[in-house]
Design brief:
By secondary structure, this protein is an alpha/beta fold. The chain has nine helices and nine strands. Strands 1-2-4-3-5-6-7-9-8 form a nine-stranded mixed sheet, with helices on both faces. The chain is globular. The chain starts with 7 loop residues before the first helix and ends in a 6-residue tail after the last helix.
């Protein structure tokens, strides 16, 4: 299995900042990566990464430690090909007390999601973000927040990578035309059945989804799995669904961000100008 160990250079590429919502006065800390050299007038893609609910604590660098869902995009080799901005907000325990959980299994919009959306709007306005290339990703709670935002604001994200998460399959039908890559484990007793149902509804509506016909072994070499993912890619397909055998909910993100095929696919997506 791929290593998701976070290294000190990964952390040092980020700075910690705080967004204060002008409507409520409530603050949301976030980690920010900006490329060192940005040409005047240049607009860059932005990646939003969200952690799972176990990361709802007061360590503002938690999104940088939970696997490599935030740091992978700032790898120098990736940035050389795809200069981009990364934001990783931290939903603190204080915010849980003030606003309640960011997402819940009843799939309702929350005060926390309003704060998060206001932050994302702020980031797009404050930093040199290309509005046609805004990418969302996250695991569990972070993936659910991604889905909730796209349910309510379907034009905000250009494309999304959803890891070990689920939402009401009927509500997710509004996402049927959006570029999505979904990754789950068979042993995830919420995300796996929910995403199976969601994908089946999309297909019933006439959407073509590319998926692995047999469950993959996540212990295979990264290169082997990456090749399998590349084989799924098709020019007339915008939804991809990859599932690993066994595992469990949190196991999914132990390797989810390790595959070049998914990262390159995400950054190949752009809205028509």
């Amino acid at each position: 299995m791929a290593s998701t160990r976070t290294l000190e250079p990964d952390l040092s590429r980020f700075t910690q900042k705080v967004f204060t919502d002008p409507e409520t006065g409530i603050s949301l800390p976030y980690s920010l990566y900006l490329p060192k050299k940005i040409k005047q007038g240049e607009k860059l893609p932005m990646v939003y990464f969200g952690v799972d609910m176990s990361g709802n604590n007061d360590d503002l660098t938690t999104p940088l430690y939970q696997g490599n869902g935030a740091t992978i995009w700032t790898d120098p080799a990736f940035q050389a090909k795809h200069p981009s901005i990364v934001v990783a907000p931290q939903y603190t325990s204080e915010l849980v007390t003030k606003l309640g959980m960011l997402t819940a299994d009843d799939h309702q919009w929350t005060k926390g999601l309003t704060l998060l959306k206001h932050f994302l709007d702020y980031a797009v306005k404050t930093y040199p973000v290309d509005p046609n290339r805004i990418y969302g990703t996250g695991q569990s709670q972070g993936g659910m927040a991604n889905i909730a935002i796209s349910d309510r604001y379907p034009d905000f994200f250009t494309a999304q990578y959803l890891v070990a998460c689920q939402w009401d399959p009927k509500k997710m039908q509004v996402l049927k035309d959006k570029p999505l890559w979904i990754t789950v484990c068979e042993g995830d007793n919420k995300a796996y059945p929910a995403m199976n149902e969601t994908t089946a509804l999309w297909e019933k509506a006439g959407v073509k989804a590319a998926r692995n016909e047999t469950l993959w072994d996540s212990t295979l070499p990264v290169g082997t799995l990456n090749a399998k993912m590349e084989q799924l890619l098709q020019p007339d397909t915008h939804i991809y669904y990859t599932a690993f055998k066994g595992g469990n909910h949190m196991y999914t993100w132990s390797s989810a961000y390790s595959y070049d095929a998914i990262r390159e696919w995400l950054f190949s997506q752009a809205k028509e100008k």
